[in-house]
Write a structure and sequence with these properties.
593 residues, alpha+beta, DNA Primase, Chain A, DNA primase DNAg catalytic core, N-terminal domain, Dna Topoisomerase Vi A Subunit, Chain: A, domain 2, five-stranded antiparallel beta sheet, 24 helices, 16 strands
């Protein structure tokens, strides 16, 4: 655990422009610095770094953060490793990890003890997986059977080393060789929590036995689980680690940590179903590839990929199972589509998978196949029409019925319009009629007025006041506290304003002007993080000539008017007989403004 005071001191000493410029070249643009975003592919710079506020924001993909979060995202580092690198760069000595206090109370509070114990427990889990991975790698060198299998699959030693491939020996307790206290209560608990052993009453044995082992790495570069493949006959063919506190199958993607740079360079990613597919493609020079982990691709995984690239190609077998997996991917993608995203589906010839195809035909022919991938819209209607007779009225009505829940999920206005036109061609019913039948008018109206909505959102008085306080925390003393009485904390902007004021009240040193780092460091684990990042990023668009104090006082006056109008509406909703004398005087006072 790193003390918060050290982190804030580090951020105060680091210039984010220098820290980021070491990795990507920044150029001056007005008061800020800009570059092409390193987190998604683009030709026009939208990645902006504020030297005065010490944060970055990309207006293209929305990434936002400080120097620590940049290192974590760019280099795939853990929080601790990113802090350590920045501390070394700044010439600061990392604090010595706090020792566990005596649980009998000789030092530290019980809360500190629980926090430290939780921290050490997480470290122990990561360490256990790392030890196991090294053990499996060492065992691979000793197994002629495992080496022969990998060679037969066409893998080179260099590729096996790059992917950290290993071998779990056939014995029931092979891990006891590297965990001498294998059966002790503490070690058993750790190994069980990370899915390396199975405990059945008084028996304890390794989960993975006589299998080729594929380490699964998260975006921070930590091993969080394993996939194991049988060498000869056996079921299941692939065995993954179970769900643990570190590993969620629906949240991780195999090879994404290593593939990120290649994905950004070519601005596309291929999603396949197996470890060997990924490894074979990578060995043939196609490194922009990831795999799901034994389950259908989830919405979370799709969102994660969309942050890396605008082009996703799902590559599945051409059999029924492959087409079902593709349809599931389509369904889970719809709500995240935008008009600049391109999703497509590649079905390889019957009997082929990516591994066999690229091994037999090479990189060039495989990439030619990618060009033939079916766009999402075409695949969707092709699948919907499979069992429908469009020559009949009933068949066309059924098509509209089945398409309705799909189109209702899509928020991309141009794509919706194009799909409606295609549906009109297939069904013979006009777009206007289809829109009415599918109840899409509110969606299209919302899409068409999106820019107006954003513009109105920017001048919301709550939002304006938050912007001013983020930019000039010293304005806290100018804030009319009575305005906060009416704040409804169930509403995001109002709750965020209240939380920001509470933070500044409790940390008056933050109101120093100018502040040398973003206040959002304090909101990482709150429900307001995303909203505040969005509001803070708007500061980057301000003209240098803006009079902040006039804006701040004007926003307060506008909020006062909003609250007065709301109260007047409440009082006017009552009949004169229902109003108390006090309410009558209040209404008279309000109308006199």
């Amino acid at each position: 655990m790193i003390p918060q005071s050290f982190i804030l001191d580090l951020l105060n000493r680091i210039d984010i422009v220098d820290a980021i410029d070491r990795y990507i070249p920044l150029r001056k643009a007005g008061a800020n610095f800009i570059a092409c975003c390193p987190f998604h592919n683009e030709k026009t710079p939208s990645f902006t770094v504020s030297q005065s506020k010490q944060f970055y924001h990309c207006f293209g993909c929305g990434v936002h953060g400080n120097a620590i979060s940049f290192l974590m995202e760019y280099n795939g580092l853990s929080f601790t490793d990113a802090v350590s690198q920045l501390a070394e760069y700044a010439g600061m000595q990392m604090p010595v990890p706090m020792n566990l206090p005596d649980p009998n109370g000789s030092s530290g509070s019980s809360e500190e003890f629980e926090q430290n114990r939780a921290s050490i427990s997480t470290q122990d889990l990561h360490q256990a997986l790392q030890v196991a991975a090294q053990f499996y790698k060492s065992q691979l060198k000793l197994s002629e059977k495992a080496i022969f299998y990998l060679k037969k699959r066409g893998l080179s030693g260099k590729t096996a080393a790059r992917f950290g491939i290993g071998y779990a020996p056939a014995g029931w307790q092979g891990l006891s060789a590297v965990f001498p206290d294998y059966k002790s209560e503490q070690t058993r608990s750790i190994l069980q929590q990370v899915g390396l052993v199975i405990v059945d009453e008084d028996k304890q044995y390794d989960r993975f036995r006589d299998r080729i082992m594929f380490p699964i790495v998260n975006l921070k570069g930590y091993i969080i689980g394993f996939g194991g493949r049988v060498i000869e006959q056996g079921e299941p063919k692939y065995l993954n680690s179970p769900e643990t506190v570190l590993f969620g199958k629906g949240r991780e993607l195999y090879h994404l940590f290593l593939a990120r740079r290649a994905i950004r360079e070519v601005d596309r990613v291929i999603v396949v179903e197996g470890y060997m597919d990924v490894i074979a493609l990578s060995q043939h020079g196609i490194d922009y590839v990831v795999a799901t982990l034994g389950t259908a691709i989830t919405s979370f995984q799709i969102q994660r990929l969309m942050r890396q690239t605008d082009n996703i190609i799902f590559c599945f077998d051409g059999d029924n199972a492959g087409r079902k997996a593709a349809w599931r991917a389509l369904e889970n993608s719809l709500e995240f589509l935008s008009d600049n995203k391109y999703l497509s589906f590649l079905f390889l010839p019957e009997g082929e998978d990516p591994d066999s195809y690229v091994s037999r035909n090479g990189k060039e022919l495989f990439e030619q196949q990618l060009k033939l991938a079916t766009p999402l819209s075409e695949f969707m209607f092709k699948e919907l029409c499979l069992d429908i007779d469009l020559q009949t009225s009933e068949g066309r009505a059924r098509l509209i019925h089945q398409t309705k829940p799909l189109l209702q999920q899509i928020k991309a206005p141009a794509l919706v319009s194009i799909l409606l036109k295609k549906l009109e061609e297939l069904s013979g019913i006009s777009q206007n009629q289809v829109v009415g039948l599918m109840q899409l008018k509110p969606l299209l109206k919302k899409a068409n007025t999106q820019q107006d909505h954003v513009a109105r959102q920017l001048i919301t008085p709550y939002r304006r006041i938050i912007m001013m306080l983020l930019c000039r925390p010293s304005y806290l003393e100018k804030l009319d506290r009575e305005l906060l009485v009416e704040c409804d904390e169930t509403k995001q902007e109002q709750g965020a304003l209240k939380a920001l004021v509470d933070l500044l009240d409790k940390n008056l040193h933050l109101t120093e002007n100018p502040l040398t780092h973003s206040i959002l460091t304090y909101f990482n684990d709150t429900p307001y993080k995303t909203l505040l990042e969005s509001i803070e990023s708007e500061v980057l668009k301000w003209d240098d000539m803006i009079d902040l104090e006039v804006e701040f006082m004007g926003a307060q006056q506008l909020l006062q008017q909003v609250q007065r109008n709301k109260r007047m509406t409440e009082l006017h909703s009552k009949s004169l007989a229902q109003l108390t004398d006090e309410e009558k005087r209040e209404l008279q006072q309000l109308t006199s403004f």
